[in-house]
Design goal:
The protein is of the alpha+beta class. It contains 23 helices and 19 strands. The structure holds adenosine-5'-diphosphate and magnesium ion.
């Protein structure tokens, strides 16, 4: 296999393979399940399973797994082989329809947020036929949903599929009013993934990176990202080889990896795929994250997906580009004359209303200990949700909301003044990198998700909230006498009521924080502030409306997220204590002792020799060690107190309010020591070395 088109998707049981390998009738039945959500008959499943097994075995596969997304966001798999005794002491390879559509892993070790007691360990995985099976590491992976014995969703795929179906149904109702009778509307996503690559040898010397994914100590490098030379810069040879290798692996798995480039921070990079259905995009993104790590190993590198691996340089996010589409229309495409495009305006109004009414839920969908380091810091979107729409749409929205005339601006032609360069018309909106939710021409880009997250959460909220607004619109418009007039009135009223969520200025500025407060927008600064909104009446009602999540399932998610927050900070605190006690304090002691010995030797030679430098240095080292020692005591106490603080919210709050500040104090003292300690004595590779590694 040589060409990319030949190789693309060769490890995926996709449409082409199905058509080749399945009897016509089976293929048709399966297609109905995929396209229309019809229930799958077991006899059909048997035929599909057998064909899948034959296809996989021809590629050297021996095992299968139900691949699913538990609530802690990482994918899970349990491998079973195809072997079955043939009664003559040998085996045959078998895979039944029953095994394909349903698995029964022991669910007790996966977080359930109290959805079931450990004794009720049974959980089910159910095949999601809308996402193709694929081969990874010689294992046939079957994308599945995961639920408890009593049917509650224990995963992220189940509510995502429910939310996609909710938004599809409501969008179809609206489209019907505009004379488009379509069976389905897809929510689509393209997720741009940021990541860091560092040398494996450096990584192996840092317990913080190995256990927590981020550096817990480290003074700033002499050179950070201030020269902005890394963004789109030339790739290191090793990184370039890594990216080619990664693309190759992803293409084989049918992931539409498209764009790879360096990011703003040194050693930071980005991969953007071509968008696809939300369900497919989530699966692809999870696979991408897994492969990013695996492929890095082969190149002597380690891929860091943490939101903030290094203090003082940019963190990593995941831009979630989102839209709604039919096979022939992008519903968020304004066309040439948005003002006259009533259908576009209805969908635009629905998104604006959804984001305004559920800004708190969107914020909570991206809340995690890792992402707290990023949101609101100077390089990432603020923790306040607002929408950027650009000048043209903004003018349209103003005109509609205030019911005044609108004049369309002239499209400006860009002439670069050189005859051979192409002429093009200028986009009507510039980019605004500071906005958390930006309209980018024909889609919205939600920039708050962290690099390490499963974007299912954000998309569940987006789909469901937009579905709710579309439902309200459809309920009103379906009974209207004059549809167009009623639709226009609805657009105007909606935009007037929700204009305050629109902000085209600098989201990083302090003035915006004050202005947002005046507008009454949420500013949920940390995970602990954000998560409780999952339990508010309005938000529980939203998810109940379409059966996307029941109140019990919502509560479970709240519990899991809180627990996970506390656990992450606890691990970080313990790691810091261990590193400080066992690595850094001894290093400071050893260096101090050598400096003192050097001073002593000088004095022995001639007591008029100056030991001023040694004394100054010893004083800094000694003061830092004292400060560290105190900080170690404080952190130990704060951590123990947090563990015993009460219910899950109180525990998480204690970690946030007391443990994190104690960690910061310990780090500050250690970083001062590092800045003066001899490099050979300091046991951790420093920031300069890690970020500016040579090829
Ligand atoms: P940027 O200027 O941010 O690089 P691009 O046009 O390159 O924007 O797109 C960024 C991402 O948005 C890509 O993953 C792309 O596939 C995705 N995207 C484009 N159109 C849509 C759409 N209609 N729905 C969802 N994602 C889309
Ligand atoms: Mg982007």
């Amino acid at each position: 296999m040589n060409t990319v088109p030949e190789m693309f998707g060769c490890m995926v049981f996709n449409e082409t393979v199905m058509r080749q390998r399945l009897p016509k009738q089976t293929y048709r039945a399966l297609k109905q399940t995929i396209d229309e959500g019809k229930e799958l008959d077991i006899s059909v499943a048997n035929v599909v399973a057998n064909a899948m097994k034959d296809w996989a075995c021809e590629k050297g596969v021996t095992h299968f797994t139900h691949w699913f997304q538990p609530l802690n966001g990482i994918t899970s798999e349990k491998h079973d082989s195809f072997i079955n005794p043939n009664g003559e002491g040998g085996v045959i390879m078998e895979f039944s329809g029953k095994e394909l559509i349903k698995g029964e892993p022991d669910a007790s070790s996966f977080p359930s947020g109290g959805l079931r007691a450990t004794c009720e360990a049974r959980g089910y995985t159910a095949w999601d036929p809308t996402s193709y099976a694929f081969i990874k590491d010689n294992v046939l992976c079957i994308p599945t949903a995961f639920c408890s014995y009593t049917g509650e969703a224990l995963d992220k795929k189940t509510p995502l599929l429910r939310s996609m179906s909710a938004v599809s149904q409501q969008a179809c109702r609206i489209l019907r009013l505009f004379g488009h009778d379509v069976p389905q509307v897809m929510s689509t996503v393209g997720a741009e993934q940021e990541y860091f690559l560092i040398d494996k040898e450096d990584y192996a010397k840092r317990m913080d990176l190995m256990l927590t994914g981020r550096t817990l100590f480290g003074c700033p490098p002499a050179k950070g990202q201030e020269l902005d030379e890394h963004y789109f810069g030339t790739l290191r040879t090793r990184v370039s080889a890594y990216m080619k290798d990664l693309d190759h692996e992803l293409w084989q798995l049918g992931v539409l990896a498209k764009t790879e480039h360096n990011e703003v921070a040194p050693a930071q990079h980005e991969l953007a795929p071509i968008y696809t259905t939300t369900n497919g995009a989530v699966d692809s993104n999870l696979l991408t994250m897994e492969l990013m790590k695996k492929v890095a190993e082969r190149h002597g590198l380690v891929c860091l997906l943490h939101e903030k691996p290094f203090a003082g340089v940019n963190g990593s996010g995941k831009h979630n580009n989102w839209s709604l589409s039919t096979p022939t229309m992008n519903l968020l495409d304004p066309g040439k004359t948005p003002m006259e495009n009533l259908q576009f305006l209805i969908f635009l109004a629905a998104v604006i209303k959804a984001v305004d009414e559920y800004q708190d839920l969107l914020r909570a969908s991206v809340a995690s200990a890792g992402n707290d380091h990023r949101l609101g810091a100077n390089e990432a979107p603020p923790a306040i949700i607002s929408i950027f729409v650009g000048d043209e749409l903004s003018a349209i929205i103003d005109a509609l909301a205030d019911d005044v005339a609108y004049t369309c601006p002239e499209r400006v032609s860009m002439d670069l003044g050189v005859a051979v360069l192409p002429k093009f018309t200028k986009d009507n909106t510039d980019r605004n990198r500071t906005s958390p939710f930006a309209f980018t021409g024909n889609k919205f880009e939600f920039r708050m998700p962290g690099s390490n997250m499963n974007i299912a959460d954000a998309n569940i909220v987006l789909n469901t909230a937009v579905a709710k607004e579309l439902k309200e619109f459809a309920d009103t418009l379906e009974t209207a006498e004059d549809f167009s007039a009623a639709a226009m009135d609805l657009v105007k009223a909606t935009l007037k009521a929700h204009k305050d969520i629109i902000f085209n200025g600098n989201g990083y500025s302090e003035e915006w924080e004050q202005e947002a407060e005046r507008r009454g927008l949420f500013n949920l600064k940390s995970t602990v502030d954000a998560l409780p909104v999952l339990l508010s009446e309005k938000n529980v009602a939203l998810f109940e409306l379409f059966g996307v999540l029941s109140p019990v399932e919502m509560h479970a998610r709240y519990e899991v997220a809180l627990e996970s927050y506390a656990k992450v900070v606890n691990i970080e605190a313990l790691t810091m204590l261990q590193m400080a006690n066992q690595q850094l304090m001894p290093a400071i002691a050893a260096y101090s002792s050598d400096v003192a010995a050097a001073a002593g030797s000088k004095m022995a030679v001639c007591d008029s020799l100056s030991i001023k430098a040694e004394t100054k240095l010893l004083r800094i080292l000694s003061e830092s060690a004292d400060a560290m020692s105190d900080a170690i005591d404080e952190l130990s106490e704060a951590r123990a107190a947090a563990e015993a603080a009460g219910d899950a919210l109180m525990v998480a709050r204690a970690y946030h309010d007391t443990v994190i500040p104690a960690m910061e104090a310990l780090r500050a003292a250690a970083d001062t020591a590092e800045s003066v300690c001899g490099e050979d004595y300091w046991p951790l590779p420093n920031y300069s070395k890690m970020l500016w590694y040579v090829d």
